[in-house]
Write a structure and sequence with these properties.
Number of helices: 9
CATH topology: NADH Oxidase
Radius of gyration: 18 Å
Strand order of the largest sheet: 1-2-4-3
Distance between the termini: 32 Å
Order of helices and strands: HHEHHHEHHEHEH
CATH architecture: 3-Layer(aba) Sandwich
Largest sheet: 4 strands, antiparallel
Bound molecules: flavin mononucleotide
Structural class: alpha+beta
Helix content: 40-55%
Number of domains: 1
């Protein structure tokens, strides 16, 4: 697949068919993405590729935890300043509009939120992790680890696109990382950065008709010569 075609075809999928993704395809995708660059070729990423009964157990535990305060390994800002706040709001409003859910319909919004804890029905999830000893080396926070994880995440999603699969990079799947560590028997030092639910997109679900916009090139880039 042409690279620009793949970049434009990829979008966040928020409804998946239950059809399982063959393990050999999941392996090819993660193996292909291992060529991603990283600072000093440190390759800080580790992956937990979870499907089947283990993923069901994680989804169920997330549903049961959904009223608790999240305890993220990698904190996110809850207050966004402008113009970033408006961009975030546009995504939330755009998805709900496609679903026909009114802003004031708290019940339907809560149900949609719960669907996120079920990873939007995805049959598999690729969790990207980093090791705490490196992330917090020298007593600080090594932000480049996260940068590197972003690179590998995009390569995973583009390779998935080439295999006809849908993905979504998401924080929701790592809101309660202790659950993954318990279910997958991982040490406390494995920090959960991001989840990438993966599967075949349910194109009939209106949530998947939503597309985000981008700022125009001349607003974000200057070319000097
Ligand atoms: C680090 C990261 C975390 C994200 N977390 C979520 C999430 O928790 N829930 C969600 O619905 N979308 C999440 N997204 C998806 C973004 O909303 C989406 O990438 C953005 O709106 C652009 O849309 P597109 O992916 O369809 O191009 C996340 C994206 C990134 C890169």
């Amino acid at each position: 697949m042409d690279l620009l075609v793949a970049i434009n075809k990829r979008h966040s999928v928020r409804a998946f068919k239950p059809d399982p993704v063959p393990q050999d395809i999941l392996k090819k995708i993660v193996e292909g993405a291992l060529r991603s660059p990283s600072a000093s070729n440190s390759q800080p990423w580790e992956f937990a590729v979870v499907s089947g009964a283990k993923l069901e157990e994680i989804k169920q535990a997330y549903i049961e935890s959904s009223t608790k305060m999240p305890v993220l390994d990698i904190p996110i800002p809850f207050q966004y300043p402008e113009p970033w706040l408006s961009r975030r709001a546009a995504v939330q409003a755009g998805v709900l509009e496609k679903l026909g859910v009114a802003r004031e319909d708290k019940q339907k919004r809560a149900e949609w939120g719960q669907f996120g804890f079920k990873l939007w029905g995805a049959p598999s999830c690729i969790y990207i992790m980093i090791e705490s000893a490196f992330h917090h080396a020298d007593g600080g926070t090594n932000m480049w680890n996260l940068f590197d994880c972003g690179l590998v995440a995009q390569d995973i999603m583009l390779l998935a696109t080439e295999h006809g699969l849908g993905t979504i990079p998401a924080i929701i799947p790592v809101l309660y990382p202790d659950i993954q560590r318990r279910v997958l028997d991982l040490p406390a030092s494995k920090l959960m950065v991001l989840g990438i639910p993966i599967g075949y997109a349910d194109d009939k679900n209106p949530a998947n008709q939503f597309r985000t916009s981008r700022e125009p090139l001349d607003k974000v880039a200057r070319f000097y010569a």
